[in-house]
Design brief:
Elements (H helix, E strand, L loop, with lengths): L9 E5 L3 H12 L3 E6 L10 E4 L2 E4 L8 H9 L11 E3 L4 E5 L4 E4 L3 H11 L3 H24 L27 H6 L5 H8 L2 H4 L12 H8 L3 E3 L2 H15 L3 E4 L3 E5 L5 E5 L2 E5 L1 E4 L3 H8 L9 H5 L6 E10 L8 E5 L4 H8 L10 E4 L13 E10 L7 H19 L7 E7 L1 H8 L30 E3 L10 H18 L5 H9 L1
Parallel strand pairs: 1-2, 1-13, 2-9, 6-15, 13-19
Antiparallel strand pairs: 3-4, 5-8, 6-7, 10-11, 11-12, 14-17, 14-18, 15-16, 16-17
Length: 507
């Protein structure tokens, strides 16, 4: 994207999450004068970090997947991830504890996965091989011909390059139906569907296109970056500064007025001018809190009617002593998780029999906890919009810790030396997330691809980036979203700036 914009064109990026940092890097590399303003004291957006009494917790995403996307991103700037951080391939990748006492360990090789599947169902090992081979083919087709291309509009799909996808029409059915073509055992179906939680969906409402996540998981494997996800954020910030981006943290944008070439952004420190604005804040928050009603693209009811990904009840626990069989990543699953998904999407309520996730980064990284201790994060997906007052949070905390002790044999209750929590309220207040969702818009069929918000706002010169836009949720997708936002800005340039208009009037 180099040499795509004149250096007298100013761009202000509002928000320093993965999407905002990515867009800032691409735009600066293209020649623009880029300023990034972040309301919090640290970059990262949802990918935050909590440090207390010698413990360090990633407060947002914790799975480093799709290393090819990170390599591609850094490669655009003649760099590579290893210039900033090292990666460790996790072994085991994760451990699954079912609530009937069964458990499996998934290791970073397909033969291990094949053996696991065959042990539950005759012929399932070969079925898995076929499933993963197709997932790999579909992954490369989807990434190369759809995701990287950034097809935001329905007309972008009228293209002969997409003909190889035509025989794959069943990928637009539900994941549950698609997986059922390969395996019957409910535990095997869960192993192929658990990654949907990363996309904010459920097996019954997520397109089978996302079966490609099994290729990401079981073929490409799971990694841990040096310094955790916070280390990746720091690396993106370093790259942005190297490219000339002026990063200002602790600076909240309170209002955006104007248009292309003549924007004015109000902060606590005064008014800042900009030719172009990129909002990494979600579109609902941007419209309802930063823009005047006359220039909003939607009325509030539009955002109320969207399907949001789950929120989360999260515990950040500093634990004294060992945590036994818990792996770096662990999943605790009921043998039938349909009720939990129903209590997220269909009849919102605090789950009676939850599926939940545990991160113990101290199993891999000894710097995140004092000697003899572990840093444990517990994440329970819950419906967005739930009442999460102190009484229900305390009650659910006790319930989850009791359940964890019963299902895994790891009793944390009397060994907690540091504790913090987050839930619906924090996501709504800290990030302006509608209904307190922790992830954004769910990847339902009608919120995928061209049916997901694009990067151009109706107001000329205002653009969006991040998880609410195409291509969607997750750190890799947000990196790509930033690239697409920058590309759209370059495609829309040149345009007449305020200075241009003033000069023309003077003549």
């Amino acid at each position: 994207m180099r040499d795509g914009l004149p250096r007298d064109r100013t761009v202000t990026v509002v928000g320093g999450g993965f999407g905002g940092l990515s867009a800032a890097c691409y735009l600066a590399d293209a020649g623009a004068d880029v300023r990034l303003v972040e309301r919090h004291d640290r970059l990262g957006g949802h990918a935050g970090v909590l440090e207390r009494d010698g413990f360090r917790f990633d407060t947002g995403p914790s799975w480093y997947l799709m290393p090819d996307v990170f390599e591609r991103f850094f490669g655009h700037f003649d760099r590579e991830p290893a210039d900033y951080y090292e990666l460790e391939r996790l072994d085991p990748q994760y451990r699954v504890f079912w609530k009937d006492g069964d458990r499996v360990t998934m290791r970073p090789n397909r033969e291990n996965a094949r053996e696991v599947f065959e042990s539950y169902e005759d012929g399932a090992g070969d079925a898995l091989v076929e499933y993963l081979n197709r997932a790999e083919q579909n992954y490369h087709l989807a990434m190369d011909r759809v995701v990287y291309e950034g097809r935001e509009r329905l007309r972008d799909y009228v293209d002969t390059d997409l003909l190889p996808l035509a025989p794959r029409a069943r990928l637009f059915g539900s994941m549950d139906d698609y997986v059922g073509r390969y395996v019957d055992h409910p535990k095997l179906r869960q192993l192929l569907e658990y990654t949907l939680v990363f996309l904010g969906g459920a097996p019954h409402n997520t397109p089978a296109l996302y079966s490609i996540m099994s290729h990401v998981d079981l073929n490409m494997n799971v990694f841990y970056p040096e310094g955790g996800i916070a280390g990746v954020v720091d690396s993106l910030g370093s790259l942005a500064r190297e490219l000339g981006v002026d990063i200002q943290t602790g600076t909240e944008v309170q209002h955006i007025a104007g248009e292309a070439g003549a924007f004015e952004l109000t902060t606590k420190d005064g008014v800042v001018g900009s030719d172009i604005v990129v909002s990494n804040a979600n579109p609902a928050y941007t419209e309802q809190n930063l823009l005047d009603p006359a220039v909003r693209d939607h009325d509030p009811d539009h955002w109320d009617d969207q399907t949001y990904a789950p929120s989360a009840f999260m515990l950040y626990l500093g634990i004294e002593g060992d945590v036994g069989p818990l792996a770096h990543h662990s999943l605790v699953l009921p043998t039938d998780w349909d009720d939990h998904f129903e209590q997220i999407f269909d009849r919102p309520a605090w789950p009676d029999d939850p599926a939940y996730y545990l991160s113990v980064t101290s199993k891999t990284d000894e710097t995140v906890a004092p000697d003899g201790h572990h840093a444990v994060v517990v994440l329970v997906p819950i419906a967005p919009g739930l009442n999460d007052g102190p009484e229900i949070r305390q009650e659910y905390r006790e319930f989850v810790l009791d359940d964890l002790a019963e299902q895994t044999g790891v009793d944390l209750r009397d060994r907690i030396v540091v504790e913090e929590s987050a839930c619906v309220s924090e996501f709504a207040e800290r990030f302006g997330d509608p209904q307190g969702t922790a992830l954004g818009l769910a990847h339902t069929l009608f919120q995928t691809g061209p049916l997901r918000p694009g990067h151009r706002a109706g107001l000329e010169g205002l653009y969006y980036t991040g998880a609410y836009t195409t291509p969607g949720i997750g750190m890799p997708m947000c990196l790509i979203s930033g690239e697409h936002t920058a590309r759209d800005i370059i495609e829309d340039s040149p345009f007449e700036t305020k200075q241009d208009r003033s000069a023309s009037t003077a003549d």
